[in-house]
Amino acid sequence: MLIPYRRGRAAGRDTKRVSGTLYVIATPIGNLEDITLRALRILREVDRIACEDTRQTRKLLDRHGISKTLVSYHEHNEQARAEELLRDLEAGKNIALVSDAGTPLIADPGYRVVAQARARGVTVSPIPGASALVSALSASGLPTDSFFFGGFLPSKKTQRRKTLEEMKSYPATLVFYEVPHRILEALADIAQVLGPRQVTLARELTKIHEEFLAGQAADLLDALGKRPALKGEITLMIGKGDAPAADALPMEEAFHKLVDAGVPRMDAMKRVARERGLPKREVYQKLNQR
């Protein structure tokens, strides 16, 4: 069902109340100069700013001479705060949603208030800008024609290896965020599960100690293991694996393997057809008959 937005007068009739706009604003991932002119203007104009950590957002606002009411919005108070923000939006107030760094909702809180705002007909407007995901990929040297972003890898070894195993057949560059105290374990599992693929690690993007390391997972594991400590935000990118021969598996087995790995059924059928050079209709008919 399509959900129309209320935008004041419609077809010559007065609406009883015009809702405000929820602006989803990307902020710098490190260097405080990496913010758009439009983002700064909107931050000055809105009634309130919802942010993960008011202290972090205050640093950015102070740098650009902006004084504004801040309200915390994070994973621990998301449900209650979302309803409060929605009431303000429906009362006509404009609100900016920001995360501590980068684009909100990308492995950060914000989904609940955005989803509910759209469901209730409140305008949601993205203000694009910095993203660690895109920044890291652009300078990684890995293929970017297709990529899969998996957020943070699971913290537990068994689940992390299961996740990597499920993505083994993905024909795309894999991208994850990782924390410093788990990076060695993650690299060890990548080497074990995915084998000798090209891996690029981006650390402290746009900051003074920005660093890119490239090589196989085992090489990075050896290099980082010799360091006394490792700090900073990490984006981990894993190159595509070698594509299996198109006829290496029976059609049905290849299809189910893709579906089990999380590929949607229709996409899996299309991929099986493409790899075998067959018409999609023919593959659909054969698979649906079984």
Give a nutshell description of this structure.
The protein is α/β, with parallel strands linked by helices and 290 residues long. The chain has helices at residues 37-45, 54-63, 78-90, 111-119, 132-138, 157-166, 183-194, 217-225, 251-260, 265-276, 280-288; strands spanning 21-25, 48-51, 70-72, 95-98, 123-127, 147-152, 173-178, 198-203, 211-216, 234-238. The strands form 2 sheets. The protein has a 5-stranded parallel β-sheet with strand order 3-2-4-1-5, sandwiched between helices. A 5-stranded mixed β-sheet has the order 6-7-10-8-9, with helices on both faces.
In one word, what is the shape?
A: globular
Mean pLDDT: 88
SSE string, helix = H, strand = E? EHEHEHEHEHEHEHEEHEHHH
The computed structural class is alpha/beta
How many strands? 10
Q: What's the CATH H-level superfamily name of the largest domain?
A: Tetrapyrrole methylase, N-terminal domain
Work out the helix count: 11
Percent range of helical residues: 25-40%
CATH topology of the largest domain: Cobalt-precorrin-4 Transmethylase, domain 1
Q: Main sheet: which strands, in order across?
A: 3-2-4-1-5
CATH class of the largest domain: Alpha Beta
Give the terminus-to-terminus CA distance.
Answer: 33 Å
